[in-house]
Design goal:
Largest sheet: 2 strands, antiparallel
Radius of gyration: 20 Å
Number of helices: 8
Oligomer: single chain
Distance between the termini: 12 Å
Strand order of the largest sheet: 1-2
């Protein structure tokens, strides 16, 4: 799970909120405008497990503050509030169901309702969760980290952790290939620079916002990828590539 900022989609979010106000009854929160905006904001990855959704299933609109909760009837007023809507895979949406995020200590991908208004807490997720290998853990003393892992069964769902492990292994393999090639000269390997350019492109793609489990990849390999790119930049006398990547992953990590 990672913080998903909506600042760069300010105009799109306003458009989605207008669509919600237009269709403020029944299940009209599930209209096409809202669907497209959520897909764009979350880059096609589930807000909670970070898995890619639509290649194999339809995504679902998840209400952080549930539509129906007997203990908190005030949540009903946020059924059509765009800040309360998130892009989720069917499994995560069903596991959360109508659970009260306050009682179950569930993290939000971005917005919380606090002191009479909607606020973001960009550092909340990183201070609550971390990856070690393909598994995700709660930081010491974090009730929200532990609660989120438990509710969404982030380490128990076999298909989920196997998929994460596959991505982890793919990156690990690519890095080992790059390590080997960086120790070679262009005389030893034909088209060495072109090969490295392709491999780095594949490796960096795993850290993109639209890549599944990009947080896991950045936390496990981000520093090493920067080091490898630094070696490559000196071999090519090219500084901009590594610096651009470093700035981007520092924003994710």
């Amino acid at each position: 799970m990672k913080y998903v900022g909506r600042e760069e989609f300010e105009w799109e979010c306003e458009l989605a909120q207008k669509a919600l106000q237009k269709y403020s009854s029944g299940k009209k929160y599930n209209n096409e405008v809202v669907q497209n905006m959520l897909r764009q904001v979350y880059h096609g990855c589930c807000a909670y497990c970070e898995g890619r959704v639509e290649p194999t299933a339809y995504f679902e609109i998840e209400h952080y503050y549930p539509k129906k909760n007997k203990s908190h009837r005030e949540y009903k007023q946020w059924v059509t509030e765009f800040k309360n809507l998130h892009y989720a895979c069917p499994r995560c949406n069903r596991l959360k169901g109508n659970k009260d995020p306050k009682f179950y200590h569930i993290l939000s991908p971005n917005y919380y309702f606090d002191n009479g208004g909607w606020v973001t807490k960009p550092n909340e997720i990183d201070s609550s969760l971390y990856y070690a290998g393909h598994k995700v853990f709660a930081r010491k003393g974090s009730l929200q980290g532990a609660g989120t892992i438990a509710v969404f069964k982030l380490n128990e769902r076999q298909s989920l952790w196997i998929d994460r492990l596959r991505k982890y292994a793919e990156c690990y393999y690519l890095m080992n290939v790059i390590y080997g090639l960086l120790g070679k000269s262009s005389k030893e390997v034909k088209d060495l620079d072109s090969a490295l350019q392709i491999l780095f492109g594949q490796l960096v793609a795993y850290t993109n916002p639209d890549a599944a489990y990009s947080t896991m990849i950045v936390q496990n390999f981000g520093t090493e990828i920067c080091k490898l790119m630094k070696v490559w930049q000196y071999k090519r006398n090219e500084k901009s590539i590594c610096e651009q990547f470093r700035k981007r992953i520092m924003g994710i990590a």
